[in-house]
Amino acid sequence: MKKLFLISLLLIFVFTGFAMEAEAQETTIEVWFGREEFVPDDEFETFHEENPDIQVEFDVIPLEESHTDFMRNHAVGEDPDIVQIFHEFIATMVAEGTVMDISEYIEAWEEDDPEDFAEIYDIAWDLTTYNDGIYGVNIHSAPYYMGYRKDWLDEAGLDEPETWSELLDQLKVLQDEVLEEDADEYAYAQPGGAHHPPFWMMSTFMSMGGEFTESGLPIIDSEAGIELIEFYMALGEEGLQDPEADVWASGDMRGAFMGGRAGFFPEAINIFAYTQEELEYNEEWEVMVQPHREGAEEDFVVNTFGWPHMVSSNTEHPEEVMEVLKYLFDPEIVMDVAKRYQPANRADVLETEEYREAHPYFEILEDAHAEQEPYPTHVRSVQRDDILNEMKYEAQQAEVSAEELAEQYQEKLDELDQ
Questions:
Q1: Any idea where the domains of the chain sit in the sequence?
Q2: pLDDT tens profile 31-60
Q3: Which CATH superfamily includes the segment(s) 27-137+304-371?
Q4: Residues 87, 377: contact at Cβ < 8 Å?
Q5: Beta strands in 50-206 (DSSP E)
Q6: DSSP character for 175?
Q7: Distance from C-alpha of 55 to C-alpha of 82, rounded to nearest angstrom
Q8: pTM for the full model?
Q9: Which SUPFAM superfamilies does this entry report, sorted A to Z (predicted)?
């Protein structure tokens, strides 16, 4: 009996040892998402079934905080393996050495599965490339287009504007001839305050043919920069936007358009998905690619902003990290996110009937979406944003000429590179 007990005890130790060894071989990959909406619907259940040796743990750290929280945690070795950020911080993260160049793994991905890789838009890599290195995967990005009140333009006998100057003329017609003076209705809505990075303003600048220095600073004292400033001046001076719009956040702008109180608003596809729930698409409202600057059609650029998944330079498991990134970019997994939130940079997702049914307006934007170019990153992006937001606020007050304002703020921007 004693002998049987010892044998049983030995077997328990052996199996416990095996279990401990199996557990020790399991790799844990930590992921920080920037929004709850980016989390795959199955929360990695399928991934765990297909990769039993890799355990994914995830959290949601708001994009507004993820960059600084990541840097802080990286310094003490407590950062995640994958972090989702606003792409404008890439230059800073590379300069600080906090993210890993995964170029060799991307090349291996293409070699191992060229057919799947061919479905991915170049912007997936272009946006995360800095100094010839690739530091993450830009699964989702959002060029800013334009939503407008189709019924209001029809009432005024107007077609879609092709240039920004034509848009301004149409805004004046809407404000003077279509909208009621005391109805709290305005021809244009935009986030005029400093609540966010100046993505909306820079989308306008890039569509006007605006250019950037090699370091990523916008060249404001240019024809495109001056027209940009003049546009915001006109919105304020001529009463084409709500009097409080110069301090509006994005939610104020969206609420104005969806609530039937604005004629045009610059936005991305994820917001259009909500807009169609409030207004009748193709009857009350429609979408268009942003106009170009008159005489500069060839300089027009379809801007884009992204929320890439970056790889920490502290990770000890780059191969496993790549398996997680491939899973997040898998067409079957990313389709759900694309339908309800942000488009995925894959042709085999955006070209499906399933996606088009959820976003009927994408047909209008399809060609532009395939040609998107990123808003450049900069090592001092926070300071750059502050300067640009300050410039836009002053433009809406229109106390000096556009040329003077452009010169004044170009000097402030240039100081960031000194």
A1: 27-137+304-371, 144-302+377-417
A2: 999 999 999 999 999 999 999 999 999 999
A3: Periplasmic binding protein-like II (3.40.190.10)
A4: yes
A5: 54-60, 82-84, 129-130, 133-134, 136-137, 141-142, 145-148, 186-188
A6: I
A7: 13
A8: 0.88
A9: Periplasmic binding protein-like II
